[in-house]
């Protein structure tokens, strides 16, 4: 920290993402990326013309991409906000709708960025503990009279809530926003996007980083009532009006025109997840019923940190959180079937050789 940093930010603890090693020698199962490349249509779209036009700013309204994304869900373009990754969308939403009077409520054990936004924007956050088995008690949120941020499925547990629970949160908190973070919805959850026309307090956040194989392009979406979307857009125009770059806009449009490709990839990942879950159970691992592209697992005989290190030494990166209640767990991204076989073989060796 330099001596020039303002007092306001001296105590800030930033969000630390998982490791992104520069070399590709690791089997990378630590940040929930897709193991597959984007649709071939994305490569076609990023042609010489696209590169030559990088001298020009991107369309700040992202009109074509918003139109395509809206059409996918029977919405209008003014129901769609585009962001430089869903992290940015979340930041703008916290900025726009939360303050010390309109506080943010989210689960205790969830995506690590939410408390960071609260600290950054001076928002008192209320974290509601999950049950012993990591399930979320929806009733805790009914009528709570605050802004609710619900990841569905949750991270890092992978547990999904039925849409009925989300609807009850919406109905019992009409004076506040319910933001559903659906980063992992395409791997077995139920999306709330279909409810956008019915609830003026609903925001649904999507990302292209997981099921659309484009974490490196940074593209996130928010779907919601046009008035809410305008409010978030006001934050963006006040902050960085060209937030989504030209290449990402083109890549996003191309990706949205190849639904069949992504459906196939998502099915492959779900099949690999379920097969890996069986393999891990056979080795004695306990786990949550994940509906995401990762597994949240624990072995009764080895601490999470030790297992993380042993895997790292074997060239496999997974995620370990040194946090209360979950420090015995590993979050393992679902890779290709071959990567999952390598992981299970490595874990078998580690377990056999433990003293
Ligand atoms: N929400 C959740 C629950 C996540 O796990 C992540 C990814 N780590 C994000 C949002 C952000 O994704 P991105 O910024 O890549 O769109």
UniProtKB/TrEMBL annotation:
Q: Which Pfam families match?
A: Aminotran_1_2
Entry keywords, A to Z: Amino-acid biosynthesis, Aminotransferase, Histidine biosynthesis, Pyridoxal phosphate, Transferase
- According to the UniProt entry, the coiled-coil residues are none
Substrates-to-products reaction catalysed: L-histidinol phosphate + 2-oxoglutarate = 3-(imidazol-4-yl)-2-oxopropyl phosphate + L-glutamate
Q: Give the E.C. number(s).
A: 2.6.1.9
If you read the UniProt record, what top EC class would you report for this enzyme, in one word?
Answer: transferase
GO BP, sorted A to Z: L-histidine biosynthetic process
Name the source's superkingdom.
Bacteria
SUPFAM superfamilies annotated for this entry? Answer: PLP-dependent transferases
Q: Which residues carry this modification: N6-(pyridoxal phosphate)lysine?
A: 210
Return one GO MF term.
histidinol-phosphate transaminase activity
Q: Where is the Aminotransferase class I/classII large domain?
A: 26-347
* Database matches in PROSITE patterns: AA_TRANSFER_CLASS_2
**Does the record's keyword annotation contain Transferase?**
yes
List, alphabetically, the InterPro entries matched: Aminotrans_II_pyridoxalP_BS, Aminotransferase_I/II_large, HisP_aminotrans, HistidinolP_aminotransfase, PyrdxlP-dep_Trfase, PyrdxlP-dep_Trfase_major, PyrdxlP-dep_Trfase_small
Cofactor(s), by name? pyridoxal 5'-phosphate
Q: In which pathway does it act?
A: Amino-acid biosynthesis; L-histidine biosynthesis; L-histidine from 5-phospho-alpha-D-ribose 1-diphosphate: step 7/9
Q: Which PANTHER family match?
A: HISTIDINOL-PHOSPHATE AMINOTRANSFERASE, HISTIDINOL-PHOSPHATE AMINOTRANSFERASE 2
In the record, the note on similarity to other proteins reads: Belongs to the class-II pyridoxal-phosphate-dependent aminotransferase family. Histidinol-phosphate aminotransferase subfamily.
Subunit structure of this entry?
Homodimer.
Q: What name does this protein carry?
A: Histidinol-phosphate aminotransferase
Q: Which organism is it from?
A: Sporobacter termitidis DSM 10068
């Amino acid at each position: 920290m330099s001596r020039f940093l303002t007092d306001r930010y001296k105590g800030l603890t930033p969000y630390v993402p998982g490791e992104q090693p520069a070399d590709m020698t690791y089997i990378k199962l630590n940040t929930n990326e897709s193991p597959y490349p984007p649709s071939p249509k994305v490569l076609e779209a990023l042609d010489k013309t696209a590169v030559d036009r990088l001298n020009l700013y991107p369309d700040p309204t992202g009109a074509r991409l918003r139109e395509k994304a809206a059409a996918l869900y029977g919405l209008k373009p003014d129901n769609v906000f585009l962001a430089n990754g869903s992290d940015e969308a979340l930041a703008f939403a916290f900025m726009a709708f939360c303050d010390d009077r309109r506080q943010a409520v989210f689960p205790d054990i969830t995506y690590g960025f939410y408390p960071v936004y609260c600290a950054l924007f001076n928002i008192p956050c209320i974290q509601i503990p999950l049950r012993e088995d990591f399930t979320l008690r929806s009733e805790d949120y009914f009528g709570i009279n605050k802004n609710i941020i619900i990841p569905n499925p949750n991270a890092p547990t992978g547990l999904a809530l039925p849409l009925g629970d989300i609807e009850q949160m919406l109905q019992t908190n009409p004076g506040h926003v319910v933001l559903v973070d659906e980063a992992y919805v395409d791997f077995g959850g139920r999306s709330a996007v279909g409810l956008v026309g019915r609830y003026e307090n609903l925001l649904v956040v999507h990302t292209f980083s997981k099921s659309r194989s484009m974490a490196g392009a940074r593209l996130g979406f928010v779907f919601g009532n046009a008035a809410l979307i305008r409010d978030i857009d006001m934050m963006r125009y006040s902050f960085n009006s060209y937030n989504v770059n030209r290449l990402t806009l083109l890549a996003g449009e191309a990706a949205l025109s190849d639904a069949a490709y992504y459906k196939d990839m998502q099915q492959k990942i779900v099949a690999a997840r379920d097969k890996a879950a069986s393999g891990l159970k056979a080795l004695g691992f306990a786990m949550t019923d994940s509906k995401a592209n990762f597994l949240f697992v624990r072995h009764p005989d080895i601490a999470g940190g030790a297992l993380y290190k042993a895997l790292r030494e074997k060239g496999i990166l997974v995620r370990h959180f040194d946090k209360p209640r979950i420090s015995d767990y590993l979050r393992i991204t679902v890779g290709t079937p071959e990567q999952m076989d390598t992981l299970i073989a490595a874990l078998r060796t580690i377990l056999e050789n433990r003293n």
